[in-house]
Amino acid sequence: MDGADEIDNDQTELKAARARLRAFAGLVAEAVESIDMPETFLEGERTCRAFATATLRLTDRPKRTSPARRDLPDCRRTRETAMIRRQFLTLTGALGLFACQKPTETAPPAPALPKRLPETGLDVPPDTVRVAIETSEGQIVLEVDGKHAPQSTANFLHYVDTHKLDAGTFYRAIRAGDAGFIQFNSGDRTYPPIPHEPTTQTGLSHVDGAISTARYAIGTASNEFTICVGDMTYLDAGGTATPDKQGYAVFGHVVSGMDIVKRILKSRLKGENLVTPVVITSAHRIT
């Protein structure tokens, strides 16, 4: 091998050593970023072996006597290989020190607090929830719509979850032929009233099986609820049911038990009130 070939080989090996050093530095950086990096340490070990072999070959190579050898930039090559070797040893020490550290155990994150509705402070409800109302006449299952009517749904679920509806009653019925609605409440156990959600805002309507919140003036809705039998769209916003034309707030519908609802509607009345109110034995979520 002549002198020119030796120079080319030396330069090639130096470039390869620099590349290995950069790769190894990247592995050390990855290890520092992670607690559990067994694959990184194994790859680091393989890189260390290859790097050490190449570096030692450069620094420990015996002197050559070829006339062309006098033309090699010995000082520069020696300084560069020594610098690469020092950097390699520093990185190896850093990785070894890190590998010996016992990973610290992190505490599990605290459970996220429920999001609140700004107007009332009630929990933001799920998009849909099913609630079973157990009565002395049988079970009625409702699906309430937290996506389109969050305030009304959150208010109703507040009564359900705190068992305020337990021992409430279906006590009123309004008939219009075979259609009409029945009304129930939680008795005298009430929470503060909630903002009105008109049907023009929610996109819901008083169709057959719809459940809505009863009220007097806007902003007085609390613990009174109605269930429609047949379409009662005059109760929607823009209808004739309320002087303010804002109607009542629909927030769900019956998914099973409409036969119970119709039976209650046909109960014996005194005026608009049931002679024998239908007792709610319990109300609870089922999804």
Could you provide a short overview of the structure?
The chain has 287 residues and is of the alpha+beta class.
Q: Helical amount among residues, as a percent range? A: 25-40%
CATH topology of the largest domain: Cyclophilin
| Global morphology | rod-shaped
Tell me the number of helical segments per DSSP (H or I, 4 or more residues long).
6
N-to-C SSE string, H for helix and E for strand: HHHEEHEEHEEEHEE
Counting helices, strands and paired strands, the structural category is: alpha+beta
**What is the makeup of the main sheet?**
8 strands, antiparallel, barrel
What's the architecture of the largest domain in CATH terms? Beta Barrel
Task: Report the average pLDDT across residues.
Answer: 81
Radius of gyration: 39 Å
The CATH homologous superfamily of the largest domain: Cyclophilin-like
The fraction of residues assigned to DSSP E strands is: 15-25%
Number of DSSP-assigned strands: 9
User: Which spans have pLDDT < 50 for at least 5 consecutive residues?
Assistant: 65-72
Distance from first to last alpha carbon: 82 Å
What is the CATH first-level class name of the largest domain?
Mainly Beta
**How is the largest sheet built, in terms of strand order?**
1-2-7-5-6-4-3-9
Please, how many domains? 2
